[in-house]
Amino acid sequence: MTLSTAIAAIGLSLASLPGDATPLEPLRGYNAAMLIAPFEPVFDPAAEGCAVETSIDHVTLHAELQRFVIGGHASGGEWRQCAFAGSELSLWDLTTGEPIQILLEGATASDPPSVYTLDEDPAVEVGEWATDVVFIPQRSVIAAAIADSTVRFWDSETGAPLGQWQDHEKAVWAIAASADGRVIATGSADRTVQAKFLAPDSLAVWRSEQLATLQAVRHLQLSDDGHNLVAISGSSLQDTVVQLWHVESGQWLPVDWQQRYVFHELQFSYTHQDVAQVVQLRGDRLITGHEDGVIRLWDAPTGVRVLSLQHHREAILSLAVSPDGQWLASSAGDGTKLWNLKTGQLIRTLDTIGRVQFSGENTLWVSQRPARTERWNWRLGEMLATIPFYRVVISRDGEVVAGYDGREIELWR
């Protein structure tokens, strides 16, 4: 499959926001090609219900590297007629909006296990699907967790493959890296977290630590220095477990909040990624939001609680820390609040609710289901614009914002 036949039926488009946002040039629309190729059906292609459906699953971007990665899949057909599925991970140039390389092509009809047959359970075999992606800019590397139990690496400039790890026994669902790329952590359905310490100038591993978790690992957060790691695990939202790991010593920290919090009652929490929104790890500070409306700050190296913020009256739905680490945004059923993290002082309350993310010094994005995100100047308490997406991704430096759904991506600077 060539790139000319594999670009997406998603309408990648240039868009500008009202207010002081500057359009990201020179992105342009794509309408003729497809990102996710139509895979051959297993059974009769003429059978009713065999139409191909494509979907964007995740977007990862890095402004400094001028790259972004799109992950998606194609599927179609009714069970016992023409069922088929396949996935794709592709690398794009952020400056030109042009595709660079297909990084990963999932299984096709002639290449199990991600194709379903009459004798297979489609919920079990998922094959080469990228479940989580990170950029490691100091090493010019893209790393991805893959559902076939591997971790794979590519050159972020060219998309050339750089190798893979295969240390987990089941699907890898989460991956995280320290800011300097020295530590890479992976979490798996095999109920383990692995942290690997890399050589300064390569992907060679000189030390590895492995810890068992209580459930399948769904999400990881690693501090920028690579010293502390939060693992969110669980087979369902009802038994979600949050654990803190001191990576250097290879020990779970016995903190008193390490218990089975029931997150499923949060009105906006439908997935483990949503659960991750109420847990934020920044340096030596761990911040957790709870059903009683209290936000608790912990000293990560010791597991000691150092501060409680108690102005919310309803369950915390989302937390975000500003890029400079000075400010905290929290959202609950009674509004969105801004805090000074050093003093614990409440700065402002915004009349909005949703998933919160910072970009730059003054901008806060608040995403609401099913398809709306608000752009606020949080210092002034003013809403500047709205965009028709719930899923919004912001580059690490806050310079580029991507909004996407199953069919479309739009980028802003």
For this entry, give a set of tags.
single chain, 413 residues, mainly beta, 4-stranded mixed sheet, 1 helix, 1% helix, 46% strand
Can you give a write-up of this model?
By secondary structure, the chain is mainly β. Helices cover 1% and strands 46% of the residues. It has one helix spanning 272-276, and strands spanning 13-14, 52-62, 67-76, 84-93, 99-105, 130-136, 141-146, 151-155, 161-165, 172-177, 183-188, 192-198, 205-212, 217-222, 228-233, 241-246, 251-252, 279-282, 285-289, 295-299, 304-309, 316-321, 327-332, 335-340, 346-350, 355-359, 363-368, 372-377, 382-387, 391-394, 401-404, 409-412.
State the shape. Answer: globular
**Helix coverage percent:** under 10%
- Assembly state of the chains shown: single chain
Q: Pairing-aware structural class of the strands and helices?
A: mainly beta
Number of strands: 32
Biggest beta-sheet profile: 4 strands, mixed
* Termini separation: 32 Å
Rg over CA atoms: 21 Å
Strand order of the largest sheet: 1-32-31-30
Number of helices: 1
Low-confidence stretches: 1-14, 19-45, 108-125, 256-272
How much is the average pLDDT? 76
Strand content of the residues, in percent? over 45%
